[in-house]
């Protein structure tokens, strides 16, 4: 199934698979850059289908920040951020890190001791699956870059939004790749 299968996605029908391939190629080019222009990521975001809560819940995702110059990129690197675990829609470990032994474990020190939950939230005019932190005024929003043969998203483009998350007018952008 293609990126255009979710409501709000511009691609549909026979052209959807081509749009998904083009989106994946554009994301690959973006990921290869040392410094990523945020307007390029933002433009890609606007072409992608919105994610659905049920497509994300029950999955663990490996994260990669996109270095647009946002300070969160360096902070997550220092934390050894690994990704996110969406056990179910109402139980999310928003920050998984690699510990000194190389194991992946939740780290609530940066989240005020809380987790998060998945909700549908409108961002940039479209309702999309979004992760709402329990104890922080922060919401991460997700769109689908590509899917597997069963139509499950395999790569998500994400943006962090909320009080204190915008630096010099820019959001923090990141990518999640399904790990399970």
Automatic annotation (TrEMBL):
InterPro entries in the record? DUF4334, GXWXG_dom
* Domain spans labelled GXWXG: 43-102
Question: What's one Pfam family here?
Answer: DUF4334
The domain of life is: Bacteria
Q: Where is the DUF4334 domain?
A: 114-178
Could you identify this protein by its name? GXWXG domain-containing protein
From which source organism is this entry? Dietzia aerolata
